[in-house]
Amino acid sequence: QVRLVESGGGLAQAGGSLRLSCAASGIIFRINYMGWYRQAPGKQRNLVARITRGGSTNYADSVKGRFTISRDNAKNTVYLQMNNLKPEDTAVYYCNIGFDTLGGLGHQAWGQGTQVTVSS
To answer: Distance between alpha carbon 1 and the CA centroid of its chain, in Å?
Structure first.
């Protein structure tokens, strides 16, 4: 069983910053990628940023230059530094990981979500 614990969401003003964290624990042999998705009310869940074990990153166009994803492999933790926040960044942010266990490859897990609200 794998558990993802997210923290760092909350309320920010436009132009402000927030930092999200997500720590993974449980029966994990190797985490291959870690990332963040977001879902606004009435909209689908979309990728915000992802980072591979080797450190390669990709971002949604809407957050490039404002958000930075990083990870600590030793702590199985991923971070999302969000700067210059905009009201359209308001959403529930979900942590997502792809991992392997000794019993199998290609598993995926989701966090419970953390609310980010940006006021204008």
So the answer is: 20
Alpha carbon 8 to chain centroid distance?
11
DSSP string of 88-99, one letter each residue = GG-EEEEEEEEE
- Token look-up 């879902």 returns 39
pLDDT tens digits, residue range 91-100? 999 999 999 9
Average model confidence (pLDDT) across the chain: 96
**CA–CA distance, 88 with 100 (Å, rounded to integer):** 34
Task: Write the pLDDT tens digit of every residue in 42-93.
Answer: 999 999 999 999 999 999 999 999 999 999 999 999 999 999 999 999 999 9
Burial 67-91 (b: 16+ CB within 10 A, else e): bbbebeeeebbbbbebeebeeebbb
Q: Which residues contact 21 (CB under 8 A, 6 or more apart)?
A: 6, 7, 8, 77, 78, 79
- The residue written with tokens 């979900």 in the block is 94
Cβ atoms 96, 39 nearer than 8 A = no
